[in-house]
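#struct-help
A.M.: can someone run this one for me? Single chain, 144 residues.
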Amino acid sequence: MEDHIWDSAIKRLTNTEDEKSKDTLDNWLASDKSNKKTYDEIVLLWQLSGKIKPTAPKLSFEQFVSQLPQAQIEEVPVKRLFPWKYIAAAVMAGVFVMIGYRFTKETSSPVVKWVEHNAKAGQVIKVVLPDSSLVWINADSKIS
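D.P.: on it. Structure tokens below:
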């Protein structure tokens, strides 16, 4: 339905109808039987809506709340458990520190130790190197 038809119907129902809106609504009603049926539904809704009493929203809410069953609140004591999480975190932190210390200690470059072997005149010396290789030093020789 068009807006001007709605406006004309509202003006008729509120007794504020002028000549133009009266002609518009009468022409619309005469044009089709379904329009008359629609208008009758509008009139019925208008009459039924007049019977509805307005209520204050706050009052309605208070009535609703008063009808609700009151819940009984029981206070439950809080049970504190042994702080396993904190102990586990401290142990894990200690383990990580020990692993880190050991890792840095093992991966650091070893201190180079200089050893010097001298073979005197007429002497042959057998020397085992750090990589387990065997070296013979002849007379009057030196290895470092």
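A.M.: thanks! Strands lie at 117-119, 125-128, 134-137, 141-143.
D.P.: also worth noting: Residues 12 and 73 are 58 Å apart (CA to CA).
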